[in-house]
Amino acid sequence: MNNSRKQRPTPRGGFTLLELLIVLGIILAIAAMVVPNLLGRQQEANIKQTKINIANFEQAVKQYAASHNAEFPQGGQTEVVQMLMSSQSAEGQMIQPYLEAIPKDAWGVPLFYEFPNTKDPNAVKPAIWSSGPDKQNQDGGGDDITNWGQANL
């Protein structure tokens, strides 16, 4: 018996370089179409989240006013936030804080607060705003997101 059979070469299971390049090209083309849409949606989502954070801060201030003869806390962001986060009333009693954390916008920058409100001459509520996507405080101008002069959520 002749054991010298001819063995057929087994086909390799890999891909050719050309096939890999074509698949990579298709993936890149799809990514080029999808990524710009996702980036625009992220900016939109950040603005909506910031508006919600401003509304929540405003609600905390209104709750404070309801407990203090309808008077909003006066001062700037730092003093007011410390006052709203305090668990002790002016009389020294233990109370539930109006805020759990420093209110921030979607970009991680603390929100700005001002009362009396000099931003809107007709306003009876405090001015609350975010420095917006560029993170540059323009006192409610530019791309800042505010609780005055715009339609609420």
What do these coordinates show?
By secondary structure, the protein is an alpha+beta fold. The chain has a single domain (26-146), classed as Glycoprotein, Type 4 Pilin (2-Layer Sandwich), CATH 3.30.700.10. The protein is built from 2 helices and 4 strands. The chain has helices at residues 17-67, 77-85, and strands spanning 75-76, 112-115, 127-130, 145-146. The chain has a 4-stranded antiparallel beta sheet with strand order 1-2-3-4, covered by helices on one side. It is elongated. 18% of the residues are buried.
CATH superfamily: Glycoprotein, Type 4 Pilin
Largest beta-sheet characterization: 4 strands, antiparallel
Q: H/E series, N to C?
A: HEHEEE
CATH-assigned fold name: Glycoprotein, Type 4 Pilin
Unreliable spans: none
Under the CATH scheme, the architecture is 2-Layer Sandwich
Gyration radius over CA: 29 Å
What structural class is derived from the secondary structure elements? alpha+beta
Helical content (DSSP H or I, runs of 4+): 25-40%
With strands numbered from the N-terminus, the spatial order across the biggest sheet is: 1-2-3-4
